Amino acid sequence: MAKLHVSTTVNGEPLEFLCEPYETMLDTLRNQLALTGSKEGCASGDCGACSITLDDRLVCSCLMLAAEAEGHEIRTIEGMARGGRLHPLQEKFLEQAALQCGICTSGMLVASEALLAKNPEPSEEEVRFWLAGNLCRCTGYDKIVRAVLETAAEIREAAQ
Amino acid sequence: MNIVVNNKWIGQRTIRPDGVDKVTGRAAFAADTAMPGMIWGKVLRSPHPHARIRGIDISKAERLPGVKAVVTSRDVVDFPLDKSVMLGIQDMRWMCRNVMARDKALFPGHPVAAVAATTEAIAARACELIEVDYEVQPFSIEIDDAIKPDAPILHELNKFEGKPSNIVGQLEHKKGDIEAGFKQADVIIERTFTTRPVHQGYIEPHACLISVTADGKTTIWSSSQGQFMVRAMTSMLTGIPQSDIRAIPAEIGGGFGGKTIVYLEPLATLLAKKSGRPVKMVMTREEVMRATGPTSGSKSTVKIGAKKDGTIVAAQGTFYLQAGAFPGSPIRGAAGCSFAPYDIANVLSVGYDVCSNRSKVAAYRAPGAPIGAYAVECVLDEVAESLNMDPLDFRLKNAAKQGTKAAHGPVFPRIGYIETLEAAKNSPHYSTPTGKLQGRGVASGFWFNAGGESSAQVNITEDGNVVVTTGHPDIGGSRAGIANVCAELLGIDYRRVSVIIGDTQTVGFSNLTGGSRVLFASSMVVTQATEKVINTLRERAAKVWEIDPEAVKWENGAAHPASPNAGQFEPLTLEDLAEKAPQQGGPIGAGVQLNTQGADGGFGTHICDVEVDIELGIARVIKYTAVQDVGRAVHPGYVEGQLQGGVAQGIGWALNEEYIYRSDGKVDNPGFLDYRMPVCSDLPMLDTILVEVPNPKHPQGVKGVGEVPLVPVMAAVANAIYRATGKRFYALPMSPPKVLEGLQEPVQQAAE
Ligand code: FES
Ligand code: FES
Questions:
Q1: Cα A38 to ligand 1 centre (Å)
Q2: Do A142 and B32 touch (CB under 8 A)?
Q3: Which end of chain B has fewer CB atoms surrounding its CB within 10 Å, N or C?
Q4: Which domain holds residue B58?
């Protein structure tokens, strides 16, 4: 079968690639585009380690076909820090020790950023349910939830 | 040894050295590395739980275009069954058969061949072309089936009481006279408990990339809990000498004990050698669930007798643990740890290691101890109840302390168990009222902790900063602890200390990241190496000042005259001395290699509140506090994280996680959808109380912390469910269907 030609935008940069029709976005990111920050924990949509955004919508890149990126805008963990400056969520995760092994961290951060974009003032419950698709086996989630809540509060404060 | 006080960095929540890489997606985990010319390996796995392998025909697979190499057990070094060859706690007879089935396949998922091809798809297709001639055998999975007299035997060579048996090991701890002890008891309670196999559940599947050059030089990138273990096992299973194998530790995406043995590395090495191409192998989640870990399922009977005043006079435990396909279940943890928190005159604790047709057990956080503690701590709750005693007071009355002789052997040094009970009792949590259908349970736990071999090199850079190299994969932030310790000793900002995990050919032998040993052992070698560096720095300053090195002290990152008598000199900073180093005798650095001793055991006490939905059978943890004697919290953030992570795993084990087997012997839930680990919305905040009773045998007072926090959880949850519902459950998991069913049964079982 012939490969498909895809034109898309990844982390703000226009980009083209060829992919198999059955290839997932996650495989393309990791194996072709050298964007290995998105991780594969399950390949079945159950762990969230592969979280990216597609036109600002949070998706599991293991459940998305690479060809579906055509004409859309993809953001991955590699695009989260801007101009060498960490995103406040990234800073807060480090301050709060909200990661242990770090394998879930890319997905957690991408998902958390997507939450705050939609809901700048989430409750603890809202954070917990939003992140329920992102498994972390190391932290028990406590420090992650606190980091997201604190970042949200600080971003709101800074905006005033 | 001096315990460091008034610390600037020890006890601070510093930013971990590898942090920015991990929040930006740059950290290279096992599956993140690629090489020019790389091809892909895949494993063909047995579909049968038990089958003799009469033959394997690989010719069709080899002819498939794109296939570069096929290997079978013939390519793996054989360790004959009649002679045990140990590597740490692993017997290579079993390891060689676990990585590739030889005469028999012993569980569904057992590797029988491996293929390397130009794409993963071709490798998978080639696996389908391999013809294996199986002679299917009867199988058993559950302990009760495996120990029946007529059970199908996995290893005919093994005898128990003179007959071939699946009971492949036994361990007994004895203290006092158990019969006489029970005779003194006013209350005796005996219960039997079962637990299901549960998986460590690390989010990163096993993966490796391996290059073997024409002259045999082998480079391994893989994530494991020990690059030296990877090197040694790969060497033993492939015949390549250790000096030719460079095992580079990739960042590791969780291990919890499950990455203390190899699965893929020897196969990828053989494929790389045969094909002449670098080979990458990555397990799918399903392969992880079917063929790696999990921990044992178990069946335990515990009997405890106490006097009216609350003194425990006798305790007996019998623990059957499922080893899976090969011997090696953690009976030592179950039989050894479960009674350790208590000062009991008469103890008999026996463990049995039982083989059955499921994947070989791998270590899981305090291996065996949570299984034993679940049974013991639930029975203790019943004894306390029948004596009308508060469960914490009952534990306080019987708590082990300095001088207590544990049934598993040691006499305890100064330990902090009582402090954890007192802290739990005084915690705001313990006095908060519980509501309707809510209940509060408590439980305690113990883990041995470990020392062992570690190496470190501390080098001063030419610009006067510091690079520390250790040999332990950092799974939970241990680099941050090392930076704190080294910065403290040198009196410099922690950001000037870079901490690197060396590969097998650049740092001295360091044993596994496991047993809660890493910060204990590595900060010990780093301390000694840093002290050597400081001595060199003092000597260098003494030379400049032309005084005796003894008259120089090191403080705040600089050499100073020790007293006014030594003379008046401007301090010489680390930068000054680094700059002068070439003229003064050369580079400044020191390495230390030790078999570290003095790791004291750890104790914890947990408080758990649950709320039970009696219509749906859902038990929900609504509040949790973990109290633990952590020795010294070098980085409190990551210490708390260990406690919280252990608790979350325990809640999963208590309420949902289990391997479900089909009648054909296959695991029916080999993925995260049906193997239900706790997600963020399942849990409350997890509170921690760090009790610090410093370990006197460690320069910073460190004790291992990572494993204790899993030990008490299942009992704490079970005891809480009882208080909420009036129903005691004796089997894990207490998942909604089982809770619902249990609540419909009449309440029984009073004290004898
Ligand atoms: S890898 Fe995509 S959800 Fe797990
Ligand atoms: S930090 Fe390890 S899985 Fe989340």
A1: 9
A2: no
A3: C
A4: 33-137+204-253+259-291
